[in-house]
Give the backbone structure.
Amino acid sequence: MNNLFRGLLAGYGAKKLGGGCFSTILIFVIIWVVLGQCSSTFKSNASEEKTTNQTEIKESGFVTSSAPAIR
């Protein structure tokens, strides 16, 4: 998630939920971290899909290599 968009969302949520100065800052930090965790979760799922696809190809026996096969 873009840091600017993440900051705007966290700021808006902190303004709406926060009561005083300290609580607003605390809520901003909490929302900022939660939004950061959401974006890293999506990235890790995409990388897991790539490794899964490579594993399936290797297990199916259709792996190509540049070296000649030794029999």
